Amino acid sequence: MFQRSHLRIPCAFVALSGVLLVTGLKAQQPADSDEGMEVLARGPLHEAFAAPVVFDPEPGLVVPEAPPESIEELPPDERPDGNSVMWIDGYWSWDDETNSFIWVSGIWRDVPPDRDWVPGYWLRTATGAQWISGYWRAGEKEIVEYLPSPPASIEVGPSSEPPSSTHMWAPGCWVWRDSRYLWRPGYWVVSEADWVWAPAQYVWTPRGCIFVDGYWDYAPVRRGVVFAPVRISSVVYSRPAYVYRPRFAIDVNVAIDHFFARPRIRHYYYGDYYAHTYIDAGIYPSFSFHYSRYGYDPIYARQLVIHRRTNPRWEVSVRAEFTRRREHVELRPARVYSRQHGTVSIARPFAEYRQVRSAEVRFARTSPEQFSRAKSTSSEIRDRRRVRASNEAPAARSANAARGENQVRRMELPRSRTQTDGSRQPDVTRRAPVRPNPPAPDSQRRAAPETRRPTPTERIKRSDGPGRRPTRKAPEKKRP
Questions:
Q1: Is residue 397, in this structure, part of any structural domain at all?
Q2: What are phi and psi of 356, to 5 degrees?
Q3: Angle at the Cα of 203 from the Cα atoms of 201 and 204, rounded to 5 degrees
């Protein structure tokens, strides 16, 4: 992993070229100049904010070089109000088009009820660096179980119409029982206002696969604040005592209309990824990914329920808009903040964003105590990355190879101190809905699909449009 020790920051600093330097915990206003820094209006969504569900866990993306050291990042001086809101630092992400790293800015995140954030990290490989995804684990767990890779998913979508207009489909998955995998079928879940059901899935690591069971998360606009990714010159971030503070927010309510999924790294992307070339790179529009054999989009599933009663042809219009933007460059959102004038505004100055979303999100001043807690959280997340990378290193896996491929390996990863202290108890009025009861695993299901779901590319090309769900077909009879 590439989390090297950081420089100790003295107490007094000045602000230069959009770089925020602070005195103690009291933040100064950032300078107007952003020399050496470009604010982007598209890119990967911070994985702690939201991530698509990938059916079959696979090794993460390998890039040809190691990322720079993580930069010191300070949260803005305004935050969403709430007891369970925490600051989660950003990380480097590989940009395929420029063959370089961009910085995915940190976020204010309202922690999902009874969840504990385990951050992703970059792992050194013989050919460069490999991304290992983060995940929200159950808050009461301190032992991580690394399971053998599950069989290929046999999820083919619902076999019936939804019981009501408020139901949404949760996909099936393999579950580990008595030293083998059993198939747990998909099921209908009653949608809850202001909530998103995140179905169960597996996260790949070099040591084995981690099972993350389903949980309720907040609706996107209630999850916190996403800040715009930035392209930073190495001349800037290599300065002594450099500290970065994000100043531009991503308007999720706008960005959600331009959502894409990249299953290889379990990330959402947003903005202008409409060109044909992005399909070949494994970046798919939400509507095609959601109905494909690759995975499931919880946010898109929620949108389906919202629009089902008011606009039955919503999915058809989504596909039509995608086609128009793919064919007409001038209809796409700008890629950088400086070129947004007259186009869709995905990135906004944080002060402007607070005004636009004031009716949906209540903001409060970040107190010195909260700045101190954010600093502690950042330090703890860096430590957790190091511990996790050490536990999951290929060398550690090789040392246990003699135990057999079906051996379950367990490692301790203590619960987050800053995420579970008394000050982070969720508001009583924001308790999660009751967990749905999935069906019991079926020991008779075979580890082979009954029917094949289309790829995202095929889903885009299909003439029947995204509104038709795939249905189960009877298994073909074997020839004598």
A1: yes
A2: -65, -40
A3: 140
**Closest of 224, 264, 173, 233 to residue 430, by C-alpha:** 224
What is the C-alpha separation between 353 and 247, in angstroms, rounded?
A: 10
Instruction: Flag whether 389 is in a domain.
Output: yes
Residues 243, 244, 248, CA angle at the centre, nearest 5°? 165
Q: Which pLDDT score, from 0 to 100, does residue 447 have?
A: 56
Asked if 208 contacts 409 with a C-beta cutoff of 8 angstroms, the reply is yes
List the end-to-end C-alpha distance of the chain, in Å, as a whole number: 54
Give whole-number Cα distances, 93 to 65, 100, 101, 261, 338, in Å. Answer: 12, 8, 5, 15, 21
Instruction: Measure Cα distances from 248 to 272, 336, 340, 352 in Å.
Output: 18, 11, 13, 9
pLDDT at site 309? 83
Tally of CB atoms within 10 A around 404: 8
In whole angstroms, what is the distance from residue 443 CA to residue 451 CA?
A: 19
Domain count, the chain: 1
Token pair, residue 37, equals 């820094």
The SS3 assignment for 383 reads: helix
Mean pLDDT (10-residue bins), the chain, 480 residues: 38 34 37 73 98 96 94 94 93 96 97 94 92 93 92 91 93 94 96 95 96 97 96 93 95 96 97 95 95 94 91 94 96 95 89 92 93 90 91 64 66 72 54 91 66 59 42 37
* pLDDT value for 457: 62
Q: How far apart are CA 249 and CA 46, in angstroms?
A: 12
Is residue 33 within 8 Å of residue 18, measured between CB atoms? Answer: yes
Whether the Cβ atoms of residue 397 and residue 207 lie closer than 8 Å to each other: yes
Q: What's the Cα-to-Cα distance from 85 to each of 97, 250, 373, rounded to whole Å?
A: 34, 18, 11
Residue 396 lies in a domain: yes
Structural domain span for residue 150? 37-461
Which amino acid makes up residue 402? Answer: A
> What is the structure's pLDDT at 307?
92
Give the separation between CA 113 and CA 100, rounded to whole angstroms. 36
Structure tokens given for 268: 């959402």
Identify the CA nearest to 347 among candidates 255, 475, 280: 255
Which residues lie closer than 8 Å to 65 by C-beta, 6 or more apart?
128, 129
Is 360 within a domain?
A: yes
Q: In what order do the strands lie in the sheet with 267-270?
A: 43-44, 267-270, 259-262, 284-285
Query: What is the pairing mode between strands 195-198 and 215-218?
Result: antiparallel
Please enumerate in sequence order all residues whose Cβ is within 8 A of that of 192, keeping only pairs 6 or more positions apart, or say none: 216, 433
Q: Which candidate, 383, 374, 370, 373, places its Cα nearest to that of 415? A: 383
* Structure-block tokens of residue 218: 């907040």
DSSP lists the bridge partners of residue 125 as: 128
HSE-CB at 155 with a 13 A cutoff on CA atoms is: 27
